[in-house]
């Protein structure tokens, strides 16, 4: 996980191809003031291992061959201690400029300021971003390459990516203006990025063509925020996260919400041309098509088998009833059998999904050397990977698969957050889940990390999480964000391995998880119809309506969920990885008939997420296979506490549709 950012001054942008109105003035009240120190601090929380900063200066010179201006460039490293006091204390004023920042720049110059903070998880040698090669190409990279490009077990994927991008052919001004990258063939920047399997956000300066490339993976699994230039604020900014604003409105707990927006998934470029009459460089922004046909199909999210014939649905329902009967007949204390009735009653489709999920977890946990240089506690560090754990269906599947993929010498932390102590539904299911995991994997040392919180006392934490949410702005976002932020922090209590949870005298120990990789179940509900609205759509419009709702969920998950979740988890110096959003898993689930993925004619806990319930049974998780869906804000009971705090009661909050309400009124910070 990394924190990356870019600030561009001295360029006039043409955004016409994106249909963005850059002439509409942003009201003064929506200007965001933050210092370079604010930005560095926000990025450093995401990338605690290293922080680097470089400036690229562009100058116009007279061509020796043609009667026109051409662009010359130079780069310089910016040491944190060398930042001017003005730059630290007053970064953003009218039009996004300060006298100190531009007093030394020629009138016909542009500045691109790159920032990169790293949480290094790959390679055997330390790196500092931005990465720069001998040709002055500059890369800021926040991601993981799990496939599509070969990465050696001891290689850093960012360094490999920089090398591949450096070998790309330059894009001529004509090709950029016509957006005709097909003529470039293989080896173009869009082609390289389209090959990557895994999450990524990128900022890349291609020196030979004077083009800046930036973007996010097709599902938006890594955050990247953008501030498009306006008349009121001419800067172009990209950042993994919004810094805490220097004019943060502490008295009412709100932030200025219109400065940033989530960058839509895709690959973008800015072609920089030499200055015209106004003395400003011109930057033409384009969005490019993916060049990977398989990836395009996943983005479209079209399923070939949506509506079953009566006989197909009858066969599927009969198998589900048989599975449910078998699960009740199996002794819950028995170990899972490879050839028992549970195995026989599960479908071949479930086994296919299971294998894809196992490969996904394997890619995200143990295929590559985890970077350890400079860590003094390596010998005593026995928990490289943790699971965001509610004890529900999705997190139980991930935990069981992680056990199969991770070296047996490692412990596994199960991070569980509660705002109602032992009484929260997620705490109860987490304890039951721990017992089930111990039954199927008695040799593994499992640590259930119980993270307890009292919402009324989280004054600073709530304000801090609100800055991380930006631009998300609802009470539901805040509730989920706080729960994720606390869970990812891993600061809680663990109980002695052999203690009985029913024993009031059990011994507890203060514990903080040091795992830097956190597996999260995001994407399971969207792909397998786990939300209540899926059942509503099905009842009102049958199978086709259900498919369209699921498709909508997958195509907007980048905006509604993943950017927010990434920012809240990464703020703890942890990297969120999403096994259910692996490209191969998505492809396999799309290839399965919808009625085999879910059957909403059947009750909750049986038909919803049907395919994953079968996967759980294959893993021996018969109890987890029958658990209903419960969102983190309800399972942890933060939603209830938030409703009481901000609306007086759950009933009043429900009447006001508090979950989707925009945070606008004064929050109780006392």
From TrEMBL:
Pfam families: Asn_synthase (PF00733), GATase_7 (PF13537). CDD domains: Asn_synthase_B_C. Residues 2-273 form the Glutamine amidotransferase type-2 domain. GO terms for biological process: asparagine biosynthetic process. PROSITE patterns: GATASE_TYPE_2 (PS51278). Gene3D superfamilies: Glutamine Phosphoribosylpyrophosphate, subunit 1, domain 1 (3.60.20.10), HUPs (3.40.50.620). SUPFAM superfamilies: Adenine nucleotide alpha hydrolases-like (SSF52402), N-terminal nucleophile aminohydrolases (Ntn hydrolases) (SSF56235). Keywords: Amino-acid biosynthesis, Asparagine biosynthesis, Glutamine amidotransferase. Residues 329-342 have a biased composition (Polar residues). GO terms for molecular function: asparagine synthase (glutamine-hydrolyzing) activity. The keyword Cytoplasm does not apply. Residues 311-342 are annotated as: Disordered. It comes from the Eukaryota. This is Glutamine amidotransferase type-2 domain-containing protein. It comes from Prunus armeniaca (Apricot).
């Amino acid at each position: 996980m990394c924190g990356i950012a870019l600030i561009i001054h001295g360029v006039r942008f043409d955004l016409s191809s994106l249909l963005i109105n850059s002439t509409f003035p942003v009201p003064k009240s929506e200007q965001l003031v933050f210092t370079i120190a604010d930005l560095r601090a926000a990025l450093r929380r995401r990338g605690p291992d290293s922080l680097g900063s470089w400036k690229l200066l562009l100058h116009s010179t007279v061509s020796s061959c043609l009667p026109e201006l051409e662009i010359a460039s130079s780069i310089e490293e910016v040491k944190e201690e060398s930042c001017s006091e003005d730059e630290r204390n007053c970064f953003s004023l009218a039009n996004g400029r300060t006298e100190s920042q531009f007093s030394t720049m020629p009138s016909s110059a542009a500045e691109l300021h790159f920032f990169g903070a790293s949480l290094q998880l790959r390679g055997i040698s330390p790196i500092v971003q931005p990465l720069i090669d001998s040709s002055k190409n500059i890369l800021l990279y926040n991601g993981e390459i799990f496939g599509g490009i070969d990465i050696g077990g001891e290689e850093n994927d960012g360094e490999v990516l920089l090398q591949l991008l450096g070998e790309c052919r330059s894009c001529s001004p004509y090709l950029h203006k016509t957006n005709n990258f097909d003529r470039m063939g293989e080896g173009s920047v869009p082609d390289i990025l389209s090959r990557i399997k895994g999450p990524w956000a990128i900022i890349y300066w291609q020196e030979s063509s004077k083009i800046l490339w930036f973007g996010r993976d097709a599902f938006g699994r890594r955050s990247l925020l953008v501030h498009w230039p306006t008349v009121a604020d001419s800067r172009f900014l990209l950042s993994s996260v919004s810094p805490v604003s220097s004019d943060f409105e502490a008295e009412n707990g709100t932030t200025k919400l219109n400065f940033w927006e989530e960058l839509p998934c895709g690959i973008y470029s800015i072609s920089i041309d030499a200055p015209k009459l106004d003395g400003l460089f011109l930057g033409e922004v384009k969005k490019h098509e993916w060049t990977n046909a398989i990836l395009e199909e996943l983005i479209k999210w079209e399923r070939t088998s949506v509506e079953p014939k009566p006989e197909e649905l009858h066969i599927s329902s009969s198998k589900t009833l048989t599975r449910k009967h078998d699960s009740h007949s199996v002794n819950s204390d028995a170990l899972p059998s490879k050839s028992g009735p549970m195995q026989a009653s599960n479908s071949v489709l479930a086994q296919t999904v299971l294998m894809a999920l196992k490969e996904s977890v394997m890619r995200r946990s143990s295929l590559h050397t985890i970077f350890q240089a400079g860590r003094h506690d390596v010998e005593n560090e026995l928990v490289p990977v943790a699971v965001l754990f509610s004890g529900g269906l999705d997190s139980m599947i991930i935990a069981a698969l992680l056990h199969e993929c991770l070296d047996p010498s490692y412990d596994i932390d199960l991070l569980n957050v509660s705002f109602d102590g032992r009484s929260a539904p997620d705490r109860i299911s987490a304890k039951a889940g721990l017992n089930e995991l111990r039954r199927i994997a008695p040799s593994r040392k499992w640590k259930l990390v119980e993270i307890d919180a009292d919402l009324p006392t989280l004054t600073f934490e709530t304000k801090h999480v609100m800055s991380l949410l930006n631009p998300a702005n609802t009470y539901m976002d805040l509730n989920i964000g706080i729960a994720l932020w606390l869970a990812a922090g891993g600061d809680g209590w663990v109980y002695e391995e052999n203690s009985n949870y029913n024993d009031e005298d059990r011994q507890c120990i203060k514990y903080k998880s040091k795992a830097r990789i956190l597996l999260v179940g995001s994407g399971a509900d969207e792909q397998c119809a786990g939300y209540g609205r899926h059942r509503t759509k099905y009842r009102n419009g049958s199978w086709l309506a259900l498919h369209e709702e699921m498709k909508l969920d997958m195509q907007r998950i980048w905006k509604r969920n993943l950017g927010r979740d990434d920012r809240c988890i990464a703020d703890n110096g942890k990297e969120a990885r999403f096994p259910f959003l692996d490209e191969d898993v998505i492809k396999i689930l799309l290839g399965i008939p919808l009625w085999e993925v879910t059957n909403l004619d059947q009750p909750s806990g049986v038909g919803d997420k049907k395919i994953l319930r079968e996967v759980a049974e294959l893993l021996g998780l018969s109890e987890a296979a029958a658990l209903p869906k419960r969102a983190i804000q309800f399972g942890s009971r933060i939603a209830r506490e938030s409703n009481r705090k901000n609306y007086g009661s759950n009933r009043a909050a429900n009447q006001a549709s508090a979950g989707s309400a925009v945070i606008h009124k004064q929050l109780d910070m006392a």
